[in-house]
Amino acid sequence: MLNAIKGSGLRFLWLAIIAFIADQWTKQAVVAHIELYQAIQVTPFFNLTHVHNYGAAFSFLADAGGWQRWFFTTIAVVVSGLLLWWMKGLKRDQVMLSVAFALILGGALGNVYDRLVYGYVIDFLDVYYQQWHWPAFNIADSAICVGAVLLIIDMFKNGDEKNASVQEQ
Predict the structure, then answer these.
(1) Per annotation, catalytic residue among 23, 114, 126, 141
(2) Phi, psi angle pair for 122, to nearest 5°
């Protein structure tokens, strides 16, 4: 069992755990120290702002009536299961892909925890320019985005290598 983990992408599960813990720790700090809708200016383009997101990315379906909580939770749980299965099948040298899946997994589980416990996701990172604000996000969302970028990089980097080896055959 341990050899199966060491030889697969599952050896990066520690990264998913760190992403989850960092996400939950920062959210609890925000809840404890920042009132709902309070904004604390950190720089001229960045605030810490405590908000609740009842929808998905960019508050998609936030006003849908409550069913979206279970819909997004179900999707995240299914995707998390798929990520674990894919990670188990990765080869030892597929490091970038393993790291990408681990970050996406940790972020997804961080937001799932919020949906299950609170019924919404706690967001607090607010980037803006003048009056235009990017939708608030959190550490889980950041982990998911970094993981997605790594997936795209891996696709371009290793996709070319796979295509070249197929063409040689």
Answers:
(1) 141
(2) -85, 120
Q: Does the pLDDT of residue 164 top 90, yes or no?
A: no
Spell out a b/e string for 6-26, using b for 16 or more CB atoms within 10 Å of the CB, else e.
eebbbbbbebbeebbebbbeb
Tokens 């720790």 label which residue? 25
Residue in 123, 126, 154, 160 annotated catalytic = 123
Please state the length of the chain: 169
Asked if 141 is an active-site residue, the reply is: yes
Report the chain's terminal Cα–Cα distance, integer Å: 35
**Where in the chain are the domains?**
8-168
**Cβ-proximal residues to 133 (8 Å cutoff; 6+ apart), any chain:** 126, 127
Which two three-digit tokens encode residue 29? 């700090």
pLDDT tens per residue across span 102-159: 999 999 999 999 999 998 999 999 999 999 989 999 999 999 999 999 999 999 998 7
